Amino acid sequence: MNRFLLLLPLAWRNVWRNRRRTLITLAVVAVGVWSILAFSSLLEAWARSSRDASLNLLTGDGQIHAQGYRDDPAIQHSFATPPADGALVKVLNGSHVSRWSGRVRTPGIVQSEFKTLPITLVGIDPERERGLSFIATSVTQGAYLSGTSGNGILLGQHLAHRLGTGIGKRVVLMGLGMDDALAQGGFRVVGLFQAPRDMEDSVVFIGRAAAQRLLKAPGRLSEIAFKAPTQSDLTPAIQALRKAAPSLDIQPWQILQPLTKAVSNLSDGFVMVWLWIMFVLMALGIVNTQLMSVFERVREFGLLQALGLRPGDVMREVLAESCLLVGLGVVLGVLAAVMTVGALHDGINLGFLAKGAEWLGAQHVLYPRIDGTEYLLLSVVIWGLSMLASLWPSWRAGRYSPQEAMSRT
Q1: With b meaning 16 or more CB within 10 Å and e meaning fewer, what string describes 92-105?
Q2: DSSP string, 108-172
Q3: Number of domains in the chain
Q4: Per-residue confidence (pLDDT) for residue 307, from 0 to 100
Q5: Are both 115 and 39 inside the same structural domain?
Q6: Does position 62 have pLDDT exceeding 90, yes or no?
Q7: How far apart are CA 318 and CA 14, in angstroms?
Q8: Which residue, of 94, 119, 124, 289, has the fewest CB within 10 Å?
């Protein structure tokens, strides 16, 4: 290592002997690193947007169900509201969980004066849903639900249009009750909400107590949705909840929303593919530059060995040149990526791609951010791979004997 450090000043001077070649190589490396890091930030922003949009649509970071509910989401597969002093509620109110809410959810039918349509009936606690799901902030006409026991109902805008109904009008909800008999009741439309089209058309919201009363299921819940303070807190939260309620089915969002997880995995896969594409291009440029430099300096390497430098030292000297050249290119690429992503901190508006963004589950505005750990890791990986690509030119430089090198013209 000491001999390598002694060669660094000589390597630095040699890097700038051919400025044009050096600047071209720096540009190749810097552009490659910039594209990888910026592309990674954009894809991560898309995956995060898709995840947040999906989890905000009632899923949360995880959910608690009775065993069998996910296979047959009927009110019969419900569970009793956990006691306030029980182990489960203590975990839900603890540091592992930031927000949670119990719901009643079951298939049903909504009927207006003009039409009858299938829907999913969701009974909610309006106050607990704030900050947990999209409902409270999505009401565009009328008002949000004011309590759990009233006869108000929230409809999606498009569903209301299909039903030919509106604010102040009455609709009839029907569903299979806890006693396996048809349950029905009248509700007055108090508000309309805006959401992705499939959500607007398929879900209606009423108070949780009103849903329990309608379905003759007092004190029963279909699910408890919850959020963890951060994604890193989710696994400990799941473990604590499963320990507190081993008889219930407690799953994270990755199990409940496999498509959202697939989008996140696809983002990581794209970054890796782009990393290898850019590495191959950078490696070709680095190897070509270093080989040209080696072939032009054969006599120099022979003279250095004749003066006492070992073949291994010649190899290390050329490798040091690559180390400095690629390292400088990586630093420039990182700085360019930081400035690019920093300039986009206010968000990228995808309004012109609104339909496509909605179809892919993403929000209309992406917010790329700088992940210092990821940037450092990718930079080290790129630098390390580039050093591997530089081993061949370095090895070639150390192979020439002084006699062979000095005899070349």
Answers
A1: beeebbebbbbbbb
A2: EEEE-SS-EEEEEEEEE-HHHHBTTBSGGG-EEEE-----SSSSEEEEEHHHHHHHT--TT-EEE
A3: 2
A4: 62
A5: no
A6: yes
A7: 9
A8: 94
Query: 23 and 142 in one domain?
Result: no
User: Do residues 84 and 224 both lie within one domain?
Assistant: yes
Identity of the highest mean pLDDT range in 39-53, 233-247, 284-298, 363-377: 233-247
Residues spanned by the domain of 103: 67-247
What is the distance between the alpha carbons of residues 46 and 49, in angstroms, rounded to a whole number? 5
The set of long-range contacts for 78-86, using a CB threshold of 8 Å and a minimum separation of 24, is 78/104, 78/178, 78/217, 78/220, 78/221, 78/222, 79/220, 79/221, 79/248, 80/219, 80/220, 80/221, 81/219, 81/220, 81/221, 82/245, 86/244
Half-sphere exposure of residue 163: CA atoms within 13 angstroms, side-chain side? 29
49 and 78 inside one domain: no
pLDDT tens for residues 108-156? Answer: 999 998 899 999 999 999 999 999 999 999 999 999 998 888 899 999 9
Asked if residue 252 belongs to a domain, the reply is no
243 phi, psi to nearest 5 deg: -70, -35
| Domain stops at, among 196, 222, 247 | 247
133 and 218 housed in the same domain: yes
- For residue 12, give the amino acid letter: W
